[in-house]
Amino acid sequence: MTSQVSGISKNDERALGYFSYSVFALSLVAGIALGLSLTRMQGPLRRGNAEPWQLNADDRSHYAIAIALEYAHSGDLATALNKLIALRPAQDPIDALADAACSLAGSGYLRSGGGITAVRSAVALYSAQGRSGCAERLLPLDATDTASAVADEGESDAEIARPQPTKPPLLAGDEEQSVQRVAATPVPLRRFEARAARSFCDTANPALIELHVVDYLGRGIPGQRIRVRFGDQEDVFLSGLKVDRGDSYADFQMEEGIDYAIDMPGAAEALGASLSTGACYSGSRRTLKSWRVTFVET
Question: Of 8, 55, 262, 288, which is most buried with the most CB atoms under 10 A?
Fold first, then answer.
């Protein structure tokens, strides 16, 4: 005979226990899910310390313009180029800056004096690197006059119509001082010299042209344009894009049966001889010959 306690069998007690545990577990899961949902709706997770390349397209454009403004005050080209490279654009970082300036200039950014100054800073930076864009065509001829006109829009008609002091007449023997305009001095381009190329065998990186751009102390210089020409084609890329290999580094993958000429447009003449790959041996393993070229600032 099944024993009874207070009119409830032991089997019923076990069933009630299992049911209680199940209800508790389901309630706990439902409570956690509801709490997470409310947290998402009422207080979404805010992400901090984002890298520049993680910004959206508009914010990356504003960040690039901010870099140009910083460069206009500091004159530190290496830092500016490193920051533009850190944005990880899908194109040449200097060209990306030109595109950002063009996009902002055509979207009402030039309605304020600060916007005009910022875009002019970007134009100055990429123009010094031999690039061009549409921003310089959209800028007003005289940024100072335009900025002043924008700043004066809130003034009353009475203030604008206020008469200005008349310039006193010149006395006999006095000469009016002439206003001399000083032309802006263009930023000189860096000059480099291509050192003799050296071939090497590397089974991990066959048929590769390794390039390094350094100053006279051997320190890497990022953001320098390097051109590879082959047949009727050419490819231009920058030093320092592969951060893990250092500021000086760039490379190009070769193919057999093709001659390659290396230079830096406007900064260094081409190597005296073209480069090509072919069979070589690293120990007993056959691979394709690679080359190493260094451009040194003169």
Answer: 262
Q: How far is 227 from 271, CA to CA, in rounded Å?
A: 11
Q: List residues bridging with 198 in a β-sheet.
A: 292
Euclidean distance between CA atoms 234 and 113, whole angstroms: 41
| Superfamily of 192-297 according to CATH | Immunoglobulins (2.60.40.10)
Looking at residue 137, its amino acid is: R
Q: Token pair for residue 83?
A: 């920051």
* pLDDT digits (tens), the chain, 298 positions: 444 445 556 565 565 555 566 666 777 777 777 766 665 555 544 555 567 877 888 888 888 888 988 888 888 888 888 888 988 888 888 888 988 888 887 777 777 777 888 888 888 999 888 888 788 877 886 544 444 444 444 444 444 444 455 445 545 554 444 445 444 444 456 789 988 789 999 999 999 999 999 998 899 988 888 999 999 999 988 888 887 888 899 999 999 999 999 999 888 888 888 899 999 998 889 999 999 999 999 8
Give per-residue burial for 173-209: e unless 16+ CB within 10 Å, then b. Answer: eeeeeeeeeeeeeeeeebebebeebeeebbeeebbbb
What are the two backbone dihedrals, phi and then psi, of residue 97, each rounded to the nearest 5 degrees?
-65, -45
Give 67's Cβ-side CA count (13 Å radius). Answer: 27
Q: What's the CA angle centered on 34, arms 33 and 40, to 5 degrees?
A: 90
Domain edges within the chain: 52-152, 192-297
